[in-house]
Specification:
With 75 residues, the chain is an all-alpha fold. It has 2 helices and no strands. The chain has a single domain, classed as F1FO ATP Synthase, CATH 1.20.20.10. The two termini are 18 Å apart.
Length: 75
């Protein structure tokens, strides 16, 4: 295998593994938010705000993984 092939493989592994955690986190966060809304519909505003904030933090980790994969691929 050439050096270029190793870069492509490393970049694919970096984004693949880096996307698993945020994907699971966002799924669990949304499921728990829907459960909380079912139990207490009056708290919709607070639940939605906290859910969006949690999704943004989880998505930031996926963006870090994307940046690392791009750096591995092109540097």
């Amino acid at each position: 295998m050439t050096d270029q092939a190793f870069r492509f493989l490393a970049s694919a592994i970096a984004i693949g593994i880096g996307a698993i955690g945020p994907g699971l986190g966002i799924g669990m966060l949304t499921a728990k938010a829907m459960e909380a809304l079912g139990r207490n519909p009056e708290a919709e505003g607070a639940i939605r705000t906290n859910m969006i904030l949690g999704i943004a933090f989880a998505e930031a980790i996926a963006i870090y993984a994307l940046v690392v994969a791009i750096i591995i691929k092109f540097v």
